[in-house]
Design a protein that fits this description.
Blueprint: H1 5-38, H2 41-46, E1 50-52, E2 58-60, H3 79-85, E3 90-94, E4 97-101, E5 107-109, E6 113-115, H4 117-124, E7 127-130, E8 133-136, E9 141-143, E10 148-150, H5 163-166, E11 169-170, E12 173-174, E13 181-183, E14 189-191, H6 209-241, H7 247-281
Helix pairs in contact: 6-7
Length: about 280
């Protein structure tokens, strides 16, 4: 048994060092975890925040962070949280919790503050408000009856039948624009809906026009292969006629005919299927 106090301290000192180290490590891990969550884009967005890429990534919370600092508050805590977004907004307690409300005729948005229904309709349809007017982007046009930006419909009745619309093929080989809308009254210009160029959905109402162009190119190649296959059938028949009964030459001729017929059938079926697809998906 140790009677000297200094010896007692020396005896328990290693244990104290270990406890302090473990506690410091635990606290440090907890702080690192909180910091990682604050800087996590998924946590930020899932809790109603907006992830900003400035300064290495920060989370902008409409109603501030929660007490633990790990996520955004889902509801305003007081009137100041609402007025921080829009000075005209105020807090209101409802059955579903605290909400920010705006004066009559306006709706609260956690990003833009108090907005009108016209602004909501404009921005939700791909436009942007400029003063009191809705400015549409791309090929969209403003529809005053709906208050939204919409893709104008193509009036096919204004088209006049012309050679580019009637033909659709050259020497039996389809043109690349077959199945697309063609403005024959305006130098046979192809009408492409630019809003569908990035669409991968294959349906009649939303098909990407580039898919139809690709189908036409494949169909054209299939028909060229079919024509060549028929030509080789004729060549094989000519070789068979002039084989003069020689077994090797006759077998080679028969193989040429057989392979050519298989190629012609495959090319023909492929062309039929693609033609049907273009008619179904085309304009």
């Amino acid at each position: 048994m140790l009677s000297n106090p200094s010896k007692k301290i020396q005896a328990i000192l290693p244990s104290l060092v270990i406890l302090v180290s473990v506690f410091s490590g635990y606290v440090g891990f907890g702080m690192a975890k909180v910091s990682a969550e604050i800087k996590n884009p998924s946590v930020c967005r899932n809790s109603g925040g907006e992830w900003l890429t400035v300064d290495g990534g920060t989370c902008a919370c409409p109603y501030g962070e929660n007490t633990a600092g790990t996520a955004c508050n889902s509801q305003p805590r007081n009137d100041a949280d609402c007025k921080r977004i829009d000075s005209e907004a105020s807090i209101s307690l409802t059955d579903v919790g605290a909400l920010c409300v705006c004066p009559s005729g306006f709706f609260f948005d956690s990003v833009d503050g108090c907005v009108t229904q016209a602004q909501i309709d404009c921005e939700s349809s791909g436009g942007a408000m400029s003063g009191s007017e809705c400015v549409c982007t791309g090929s969209r046009e403003y529809n005053s009856s709906t208050g939204k930006c919409e893709i104008p419909s193509v009036d096919n009745s204004a088209y006049v039948a012309g050679p580019c619309e009637v033909a659709g093929s050259f020497l039996g080989i389809p043109t690349w624009y077959r199945g697309l809308s063609v403005d024959t009254a305006n130098n046979c210009e192809i009408v492409l809906d630019t809003d569908k160029l990035s669409n991968t959905d294959i349906s009649r109402t939303s098909v990407n026009p580039l898919i139809i162009v690709a189908f036409n190119v494949i169909d054209a190649l299939s028909r060229v292969v079919g024509i060549l296959a028929v030509a080789f059938v004729i060549v094989g028949g000519f070789k068979y006629v002039i084989s003069d009964g020689a077994p090797d030459r006759a077998n080679n001729a028969r193989k040429t005919i057989t392979n050519s017929l298989i190629g012609a059938v495959i090319a023909g079926v492929s062309s039929i299927l693609i033609t049907v697809a273009v008619k179904v998906l085309g304009a």
